[in-house]
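stage 2 :: seqdesign
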């Protein structure tokens, strides 16, 4: 598996992000979907990575700088065809390493609260993330779970 910084121009990445957005919209009410589209991911405060096996896209993830000490994980997604094979763990390990290298003292995320999100909760818990309240511009939402990791 090769994880690389991505410029968001490849059709396979577009398709995975569209799948991600469509799935989030089926699981959460519209005002509780915080997944980013292509335009939002192209902002200068966001770094985006894709994971590949040759020419096969395995997954993606992003890191948004909230401030010089705090980052947020965004757009973590593993292709349905390779779920359960460690892609999410590899991307998360990479993002945590980048956050540490940048000098962040905290890394946070928002994800869904429904049963479909339990595997994501377990992944983050295994990596030391704990549950917290809203951060940044988020507000309390029964459809959201907030997690954070002190670095």
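stage 2 :: out
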């Amino acid at each position: 598996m090769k994880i690389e910084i991505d410029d968001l121009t490849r059709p396979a990445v577009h398709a995975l992000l569209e799948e991600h957005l469509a799935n989030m919209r089926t699981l959460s009410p519209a005002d509780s979907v915080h997944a980013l589209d292509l335009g939002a991911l192209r902002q200068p405060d966001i770094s985006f990575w894709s994971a590949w096996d040759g020419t096969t896209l395995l997954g993606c993830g992003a890191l948004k700088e909230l401030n010089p000490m705090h980052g947020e994980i965004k757009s973590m997604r593993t292709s349905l065809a390779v779920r359960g094979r460690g892609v999410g763990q590899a991307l998360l390990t990479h993002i945590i390493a980048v956050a540490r290298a940048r000098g962040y003292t905290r890394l946070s995320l928002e994800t869904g609260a429904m049963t479909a999100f339990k595997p994501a909760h377990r992944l983050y818990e295994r990596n030391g993330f704990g549950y917290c309240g809203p951060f940044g511009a988020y507000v309390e939402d029964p459809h959201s779970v907030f997690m954070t990791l002190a670095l």
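stage 3 :: structure notes
- The chain has a mean pLDDT of 93.
- The CA atoms of residues 72 and 108 lie 5 Å apart.
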